[in-house]
Design goal:
The complex is a heterodimer of chains A (111) and B (115). Chain A has 111 residues and is an all-beta fold. Chain A is built from no helices and eleven strands. Chain B has 115 residues and is mainly β.
């Protein structure tokens, strides 16, 4: 089945640093989604990308939909303590409300 | 408006027992899907319901079942619990069926521990 490979699996950074993570797939996706999950909570949608090549920002977050439709990246600029959590990329299976998720990137920030 | 509500939030069950988890979608949302999240397997799709009909099912054994009621509320049931069923079970809701770009919203999840 379709799988998403997300990297890196974990990141340890200093407050104020920029962060970059990416997601790749062997299959084409027509939508890429980026979620953040805080401990003990459900995933919260950060950014949705609907068009190949699309670059979308949400505050300090920027995400891009790869031209090949097989990859996406998420950047966080000037990280702050509340950015700590697990970030997931996800893509919908055609014609279904079924999402395939990447393995997640766990972000830890040292103050 | 109220988000996706899942109950209970935490529960502990014994091997062999069964469990029922409940999900109330966002008002007006008619599609509900369920996911299992474990440290080893990550987030995995269980099933999707729309208008009381199961539209898609993930690769889980028949011990996992679900249903949706006319008010769009959904329940999932796991019978003959195994230790490996310990996980965070997440419910997600969206406006319609099929992928139309509608945002999918997740609840806070139900933490199930099987001992």
């Amino acid at each position: 089945g379709q799988q998403l490979n997300q990297s890196p699996q974990s990141m340890f950074i200093q407050e104020g640093e920029d962060v970059s993570m990416n997601c790749t797939s062997s299959s084409i996706f027509n939508t890429w989604l980026w979620y953040k999950q805080d401990p003990g909570e459900g995933p919260v949608l950060l950014i949705a990308l609907y068009k190949a090549g699309e670059l979308t920002s949400n505050g300090r977050l920027t995400a891009q939909f790869g031209i090949t439709r097989k990859d996406s990246f998420l950047n966080i600029s000037a990280s702050i303590p509340s950015d700590v959590g697990i970030y997931f990329c996800a893509g919908p299976i055609q014609g279904a409300q079924k999402l395939v998720f990447g393995q997640g990137t766990r972000l830890t920030i040292n103050p | 408006k109220a988000g996706v509500t899942q109950t209970p939030r935490y529960l502990i069950k014994t091997r062999g027992q069964q469990v029922t988890l409940s999900c109330s979608p966002i008002s007006g949302h008619r599609s509900v899907s369920w996911y299992q999240q474990t440290p080893g397997q990550g987030l995995q799709f269980l099933f999707e319901y729309f208008s009381e009909t199961q539209r898609n099912k993930g690769n889980f054994p028949g011990r996992f079942s679900g249903r949706q009621f006319s008010n769009s509320r959904s329940e999932m049931n796991v019978s003959t619990l195994e230790l490996g069923d310990s996980a965070l079970y997440l419910c997600a809701s969206s406006l319609g069926a099929g992928w139309t770009g509608n945002t999918i919203y997740f609840g806070e999840g139900s933490w199930l521990t099987v001992v």
